[in-house]
Design brief:
Layout lengths: L1 H19 L22 E14 L11 E16 L2 E16 L2 E18 L4 E11 L4 E3 L10 E4 L5 E14 L2 E8 L2 E4 L7 E4 L3 E4 L14 E4 L2 E11 L4 E12 L7 E11 L4 E11 L8 E15 L12
Length: about 325
């Protein structure tokens, strides 16, 4: 009797499972339809992409002017996974733009910045984390001034020339899903230089010359990678819709090599996007970099443009914990 009951119970379970399977196969050309739904409620995503175009042309114009065409694109994407005490936050910021004047094309903006952070909750607002940050450029960059008379341009950058990969372990403060501050007392960094043709130096005070033996971006001659093991890293990230039509995406990075604390690196990335209409927007971008391996002075890249925009987000506000009664 017990054996019969067990057989019936097993048969009912198998029959119920088979009844929920909606896979139908008539022939090899049929499309399989399986009633399987993946749980995506743990993911929050946002994407903002824009294309900006500026054009000016002159023909027998008494006031003078230069024919020009400028095209730029920006993308900011984020995917955040949160389940239980674990989180995985991924962001990508990309820019590429060119301007063409009198038949001469030059790069106007270029950026690759990707960050991935895995967190384990230690308290409602604190996480233990591990992160990786990668930065580089899409296309070659050139110096056009302070060159020898016979030169029109000198290559000074390229993809992975330089490129940087930083790893970090530490503690993160995350009061909201759109704000985080991460402190890492141990953060090794790799600086890549795969294109040896970007090596150059100053001849005198104002003249750039090609020099394959020069140390550039901290990478010495004959090497393609520079490794920094002992360093402190501080990162702050803010990604938020200020209003329905205005979005701000800001990042700050401080990198301090314990061996060269008199040369601490600072980087600020800021993008503010304001919708004019559903698909038209104004975008302001700013990158500020202080890194003595790159330049002894502060480096700035600023863009302001109007163009097409596509923006979508599924992010939710973090619920505040209620006080126990």
């Amino acid at each position: 009797m017990k054996g019969t009951l067990r057989f019936l119970l097993a048969w009912l379970i198998c029959y119920s499972a088979a009844a929920q399977d909606t896979t139908v196969v008539k022939n090899f050309k049929d499309t399989l339809s399986v009633n399987i739904k993946f749980d995506t409620t743990y993911w929050q995503r946002s994407f903002s992409g824009g294309i900006n175009l500026n054009q000016a042309s002159f023909s027998n114009w008494s006031g003078g002017g230069i024919n020009s065409l400028a095209l730029g694109s920006t993308i900011a994407a984020r995917a955040l996974y949160m389940k239980g005490n674990w989180s995985w936050d991924n962001t990508g910021d990309f820019q590429l733009g060119y301007v063409k004047q009198q038949g001469v094309q030059r790069k106007s903006s270029d950026q690759i910045l990707i960050t991935s952070v895995v967190g384990l909750k230690a308290s409602p607002v604190l996480d233990y984390f591990f992160s990786s940050t990668f930065s580089s450029y899409f296309a070659p960059g050139y110096q056009y001034t302070n060159l020898a008379p016979e030169q029109t341009r000198l290559k000074i950058s390229n993809f992975l020339s330089p490129g940087q990969l930083s790893l970090a372990w530490g503690l993160a403060y995350k009061p909201q899903t759109w704000l985080s501050v991460r402190l890492s007392p141990f953060s090794p960094r790799l600086t890549f230089l795969l294109d040896n043709s970007v090596r150059n130096r100053y001849q005198g005070d104002t003249l750039y010359v090609r020099d394959p033996t020069a140390t550039v971006y901290g990478v010495r001659s004959g090497r393609r990678v520079r490794t920094e093991w002992l360093a402190l890293q501080l990162q702050a990230t803010l990604t938020k819709n200020i209003t329905e039509n205005i979005n701000i995406n800001a990042k700050y990075l401080m990198y301090a090599n314990y061996q060269t604390l008199n040369a601490i690196d600072h980087r600020v990335d800021l993008t503010v996007t304001a919708k004019v209409t559903r698909y038209i927007s104004t975008t302001f971008g700013l990158i500020a970099l202080l890194d003595k391996d790159y330049s002894s002075a502060m480096q700035l890249q600023q863009t302001l443009a109007i163009g097409l925009l596509y923006n979508v987000s599924t992010f939710r506000e973090k619920k505040k914990a209620t006080a126990a009664k």
